[in-house]
Amino acid sequence: MAKSLVVALGLWALGGLLGLHHLYLGRDRHALLWILTLGGFGAGWLWDLWHLPGWVATANGSPRPPQDGAVPILSPPRVVGQLLVGAYFGLVAALGVPWVPPPLAVALGVLLVASVGDQGTNRSHVLVAAFLSSLLFQGGLLPTSLATTAVAAWHRRFEHPRDPPPTLAARLCHLGLGVAAFGIPLAWGGVSRALGLAGTVLRLPLRVGVLPLHAGWALLEGLGVVGRAPEG
Predict the structure, then answer these.
(1) Helix (H, G, I), strand (E, B) or coil at 52
(2) Can you tell me the distance from the alpha carbon of 155 to that of 137, in angstroms, rounded to the nearest whole number?
(3) Mind telling me which residue stretches traverse the membrane in this protein (predicted)?
(4) Are 149 and 107 in contact (CB under 8 A)?
């Protein structure tokens, strides 16, 4: 079914931060990226408006297989996106998902941006670069993301379109799994931290309430009115 620019614009306006226009145009990895970053931190959502006509035309045309050996032109916005999303994923893992190594999260963020559209990169090289650079930079997220982005950009390539294309149900299932893989650990980390904070807040009045008792007992001990409590 042919895609409509009017429908794409409407989805961009109403649900663009969640990537609904990308989902409509068959750009599922771009939709996943937008869901996880709320439209590329808002700036990417605005940038999409200028590209919608071209994406609609591409969606309505027959997919062209890339030429053997062709390398995509280096895109500065894609490189910046890889750097920022890689560092963002690493920060989320460090703060909210303690059982996910931050270098792995950085690599996943860089790979997600690198796979948007018809492009991709060498996944194994990116993963190795993330862990090695994390060791080299002693866990620094920004330099780790920068080094991983450089490797992903160096190995950039075109990806062959799937033939036949997946069904809508399969696409939605894959998208849901991607969101769950990121969202469930993050939500669990947030809930755990919230429960720990709530427990501290609830215990605070009890601790404050017994302070006068401790102070009064210490005063009576100092005056010799009562003896010291026997030590166990």
Answers:
(1) helix
(2) 22
(3) 6-24, 31-47, 87-114, 126-148, 168-188
(4) no
- Cα within 13 Å of Cα(48), Cβ side: 32
How far apart are alpha carbons 80 and 101 in whole angstroms?
Answer: 22
172 — phi, psi (to 5°)? -65, -35
Report pLDDT digits (tens) over 104-127. 999 999 999 999 988 999 999 999
Q: Contact 111/130 with Cβ under 8 angstroms?
A: no
Residue 87 buriedness (CB in 10 A; 0-12 / 13-18 / 19+): buried
Instruction: Measure CA of the first residue to CA of the last residue in the chain; give whole Å.
Output: 81
- Amino acid code (one letter) for 135: L
CB contact at 8 A, 51 and 9: no
Nearest to 87 by CA among 143, 156, 31, 155: 143
Residue with tokens 């989902």, as numbered in its chain: 23
DSSP class of 122: -
pTM summary value: 0.78
Tokens (6 digits) for 91: 């920060």
DSSP 8-state secondary structure symbol assigned to residue 18: G
